């Protein structure tokens, strides 16, 4: 009999993915592999780790040095076994360690360059892959809505800041997009479904003990044990980026399409690794991944802890476990020596394979294509993967400056002239022990025939080279700007050439031109991970509707089925370098000034949507623009109008009821005045629409012109055009929206010189009989012969 598994351990292993630690979820099931097959795949990982060892070692050491320089640790010497260390010697002056006195210009230049690249997220656009396919068109529109919610779930500004930093120090970054289930971060699915249940309602799990074998019905006289509900961790699409130390690729590949493998390695505490892979938690040890060079692991831990040199604390080293992912393209299966396993992988994972290891232990393998989740971003052009970083050419400048500035510093503080004194005329040892006090008097015995100057000699004071300060200034400023691209125009510094706004703007554009290659790569990577996120949502989410919020706090509802069409994502054609808020405000101010003599600009600025842009451009949160408020109000009403079609006009229904009552009045058949009134009411009925919108219009307080313009923008926009050719429900909803816009349009205040036609109140009871007959006939009512009047019949009015 097999040994019974402890109950607590079984509960942990049976817990849903993401319950106790984040889990990179996939809709594909893990492959069913035996121990020998798992070991052969682990051997394949070891083989890929050992590929390009010399080039990989050089890549790691370069990146390690650059990250240490960025941290401020700049006095580094290469170690015999790889890595970097501080010199053991000190300056000898006042016991201060000269190794910690670097004059850091590498990091400030990096901040200037990376800030210019990270002002905002590049703009992208989803397009249907097949323009004539309705499902593809619908998917592109749904993806645009999804992009907004995805940007709020992920802190993309911070992610791009890390991406730009890796481009400065490493030269290559990996962007990884996937669907993550994480109860700690995202909560549980049940939390969004009937979070509060009234006490009067029957609880859904009341009878769970009757059908659940793990919670059998209680014996007579025994208290019932309630069933423990199984909660499901929520999942969201998450994007992260990593540098060269965290990932490895074939060094001779040109780009991701040439890579037959990609390895991602990160360190986590052993307790986290065990929660991540509960099936193998007893085997997990704080070790590196199979076949990984120990130098890679030391470099990652050292940079993560921000320790000087190659130091790694013992407690961290013995507690951290390396979790390794390796993506394999199908071509990599040919490196396996087992033909049976190779055939199995080609059949069950034809798109590629993802393997996971915790330490040296195999965790699982599942079908996964690296192109669906990964993207490589490069700082510069190059022949292979170990390309130069944006800050590579600043490191020699930084090293020279540290040496020169330290030497100049020595001239200031260490070149006090040395004195030589006659040992017979002076007690030198006694003088050394005396306290030197300005103005103090010390007597001495004069030597016959000698002056004091003959007894004391002070050596000449050495001076530094006259060009040293000039070279320091040149290297710190002119050469540093030339090599890094961090010109003063990028950061608002002194341009020294042109103080006018136009001249500074031209210099800024020229400086940004130096960064066009990394910016272009960042744009493409952004479009790529947006597309990957949409595809992950369509494949991995289980709910029918995705509920998100836009930056204004409004609800976004996306049908999951709508995301499953074929779409493409590209950077916007006019997406140049991102503007700062100050630049946007300056452009808007110039537009306002120009509009004073341009009627067309005045018309554009009067549009409600542009009024909202105007409010954002002011930067004043308390600054109110009525048209912007009306625009937001109408957007909220649009969400209600889109749910149903129009409803019957209640005025017509009321009028029909009143005519029926009037038909019972005998006076309406004989009184000419009442017949005339019925005739007039008949004419008024022709002007009343048979249906009205489901959202009433407040004729006294609504900004009818702004809200009518908002409706017109929606109807003529992409969503309105889609609804016009959509389902019957969508067409009815669009009719409801149009009627609402017409109701606002009818109440727009007349312009100067125009008069609104007056309205007339008609009392139906006062209409003559002929008029009542005609009005009743128009309403489809047959008036019976004259009968006695109904006492107390109310008098109604029709507008």
Give a description of the structure.
This protein has 799 residues and is an alpha+beta fold. Among the domains are: 581-624; 634-751 and 759-798, no CATH class. It has 30 helices and 21 strands. The strands form 8 sheets. It has a 5-stranded antiparallel β-sheet with strand order 7-8-9-10-11. Strands 1, 5, 6 and 12 form a 4-stranded antiparallel β-sheet that branches. The longest helix has 25 residues, at 516-540. The radius of gyration is 40 Å and the shape is extended. It starts with 6 loop residues before the first helix and ends with a strand. The model is unreliable at 89-96, 194-214, 757-761 and 787-799 (pLDDT under 50).
């Amino acid at each position: 009999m097999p040994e019974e598994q402890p109950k607590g351990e079984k509960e942990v292993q049976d817990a849903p993915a993401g319950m106790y630690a984040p889990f990179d979820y996939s809709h594909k099931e893990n492959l069913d592999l035996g121990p020998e097959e798992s070991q052969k795949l682990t051997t394949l990982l070891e083989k890929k780790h050992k590929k390009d060892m010399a080039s990989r070692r050089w890549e790691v050491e370069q990146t390690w040095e650059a990250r240490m320089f960025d941290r401020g640790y700049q006095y580094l010497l290469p170690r015999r076994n790889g890595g970097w260390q501080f010199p053991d010697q000190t300056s000898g002056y006042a016991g201060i360690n000269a190794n910690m006195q670097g004059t850091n210009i590498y990091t400030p230049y990096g901040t200037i360059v990376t800030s210019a690249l990270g002002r905002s997220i590049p703009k992208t656009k989803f397009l249907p892959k097949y323009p004539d396919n309705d499902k593809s068109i619908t998917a592109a529109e749904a993806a645009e809505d999804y992009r907004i919610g995805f940007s709020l779930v992920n802190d993309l500004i911070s992610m791009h800041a890390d991406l730009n930093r890796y481009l400065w120090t490493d030269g290559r970054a990996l962007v990884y997009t996937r669907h993550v289930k994480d109860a700690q971060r995202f909560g549980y699915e049940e939390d969004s479904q009937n979070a509060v249940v009234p006490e009067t309602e029957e609880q859904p799990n009341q009878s769970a003990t009757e059908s659940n074998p793990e919670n059998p019905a209680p014996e007579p006289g025994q208290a019932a044990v309630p069933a423990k509900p199984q909660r499901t961790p929520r999942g969201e699409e998450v994007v992260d980026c990593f540098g060269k130390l965290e990932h490895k690729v074939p060094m001779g590949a040109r780009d991701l399409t040439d890579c037959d493998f990609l390895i991602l390695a990160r360190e986590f505490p052993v307790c986290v690794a065990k929660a991540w892979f509960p099936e193998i938690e007893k085997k997990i040890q704080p070790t590196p991944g199979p076949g990984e060079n120990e130098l890679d692991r030391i470099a990652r831990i050292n940079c993560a802890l921000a320790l000087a040199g190659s130091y790694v604390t013992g407690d961290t080293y013995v507690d951290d476990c390396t979790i390794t992912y390796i993506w394999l393209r199908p071509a990599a299966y040919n490196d396996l020596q087992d033909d049976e396993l190779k055939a199995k992988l080609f059949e069950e994972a034809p798109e590629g394979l993802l393997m996971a290891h915790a330490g040296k232990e195999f965790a699982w393998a599942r079908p996964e294509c690296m192109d669906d989740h990964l993207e490589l971003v490069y700082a510069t052009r190059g022949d292979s993967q170990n390309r130069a970083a944006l800050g590579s050419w600043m490191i020699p400048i930084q090293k020279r400056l540290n040496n020169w500035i330290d030497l100049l510093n020595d001239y200031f503080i260490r070149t006090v002239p040395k004195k030589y004194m006659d040992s017979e005329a002076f007690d030198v040892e006694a003088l050394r022990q005396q306290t030197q006090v300005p103005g103090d008097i010390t007597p001495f015995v004069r030597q016959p025939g000698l002056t004091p100057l003959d007894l004391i000699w002070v050596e000449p004071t050495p001076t530094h080279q006259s060009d040293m300060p000039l070279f320091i200034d040149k290297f710190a400023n002119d050469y540093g700007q030339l090599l890094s691209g961090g010109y003063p125009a990028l950061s608002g510094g002194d341009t020294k050439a042109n103080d006018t706004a136009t001249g500074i703007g031209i210099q800024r554009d020229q400086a940004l031109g130096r960064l066009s290659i990394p910016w272009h790569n960042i744009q493409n990577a952004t479009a790529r991970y947006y597309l990957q996120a949409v595809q992950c949502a369509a494949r991995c989410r289980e709910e029918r509707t995705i509920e998100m919020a836009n930056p204004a706090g409004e609800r976004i509802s996306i049908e999951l089925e709508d995301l499953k069409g074929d779409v493409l994502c590209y950077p916007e054609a006019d997406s140049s370098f991102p503007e700062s808020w100050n630049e946007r405000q300056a452009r808007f101010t110039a537009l306002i000034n120009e509009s004073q003599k341009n009627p067309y600009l005045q018309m554009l600025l009067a549009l409600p949507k542009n009024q909202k842009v105007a409010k954002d451009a002011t930067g004043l949160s308390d600054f109110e623009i009525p048209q912007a408020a009306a625009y937001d109000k109408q957007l909220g009403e649009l969400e209600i109008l889109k749910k149903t079609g129009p409803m019957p006009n209640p005025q017509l229904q009321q009028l029909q009821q009143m005519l029926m009552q009037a038909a019972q009045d005998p006076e309406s058949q004989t009184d000419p005045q009442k017949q005339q009134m019925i005739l007039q009411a008949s004419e008024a009925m022709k002007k009343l629409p048979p249906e009205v919108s489901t959202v009433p219009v407040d004729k006294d307080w609504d900004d009818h012109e702004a809200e009518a313009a908002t409706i017109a923008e929606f109807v003529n926009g992409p969503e309105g055009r889609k609804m016009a050719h959509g389902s019957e429900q969508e067409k009815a909803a669009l009719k409801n929206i149009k009627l609402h816009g017409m109701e606002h349009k009818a109440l727009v205040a007349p312009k100067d010189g125009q008069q609104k036609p007056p309205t007339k109140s008609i009392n139906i009871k006062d209409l003559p009989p002929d008029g009542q007959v005609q009005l009743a006939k128009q309403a489809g009512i047959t008036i019976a012969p004259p009968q006695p009047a109904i006492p107390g019949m109310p008098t109604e009015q029709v507008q």
